[in-house]
Amino acid sequence: MSSNHAAVPYYFVPGPSRWPLLGGASLLLTMIGASAWVNDVSWGPYLNLAGIAGILLVLYFWFGDAIGESEKGLYSERIDHSFRWSMSWFIFSEVMFFGAFFGALFYARSISMPWLGDLDNKLIWPDFSAHWGNTGPAGTVQDFVTMTPFWIPTINTALLLLSGVTLTISHHALRAGHRSVTALFLFATIALGAVFMGFQVYEYVHAYSELNLKLTSGIYGATFFMLTGFHGFHVTMGAIMLSVILYRVLKGHFTPEQHFGFEGAAWYWHFVDVVWLGLYVVVYWL
Predict the structure, then answer these.
(1) Which of 8, 36, 66, 171 has a CB 3.0–4.6 Å from the CB of 44, allowing a cystine?
(2) Sequence-separated (6 or more) residues with CB below 8 Å from residue 256
(3) CATH number for position 60
(4) Domain end among 75, 108, 141
């Protein structure tokens, strides 16, 4: 935001936009394609990728419009407050999103597993072992090896914690008016996120090829890949957001007083860090 934004005396209301409609249509195509894909329908992957491409294009042009409006000085302090509340509620919705998967993991491991291993069910499945990471009743799941926190998950934890530090330094530098320091530490944050994703890809390849741990490996495999996979997706999206912010910093778009675009992306990144800490403890250690 430009430094004169706070002087705007009214609440800016943009004109009619086609982006919400196109964004909703792209999301619908993405989910239809994903549903078809997991059910082995031939056109599913193509429709899913087309929907994702549509979402990315909508975001590019939609956020481009918002950035243009901001740089023209159309946003007042009241708009800034609206953005902050909107981002807060968005992050709250993400908390609920991950809460559902953490809840599924807790229910499967702490409630369903002991229940399936009690005396009554022993009469039905006498060979069933009620330990987390089992192969299901009567060995319905192929043998696999469970994940441990050493060493890639631990390294990734250190990387994300360090990225939170570099992002905070970047933010303080922006508030102090040191644009070059802001850009340097913001780039370091993005690089740490990229290394994190590289390690996660390696971990997935190792799990599939050497541990025989797959998405189809019972409830353990399903919850492991859903939680870590969605978190990896959020890291990727966060890195893209920070890359856009880095570009804007280099273009001189922010001031020490007005820079919510930076702050919103930083909030999101710190949220991703916190989620990973929960994953690291619950998925890899417990």
Answers:
(1) 36
(2) 174, 175, 176, 177
(3) 1.10.287.70
(4) 75
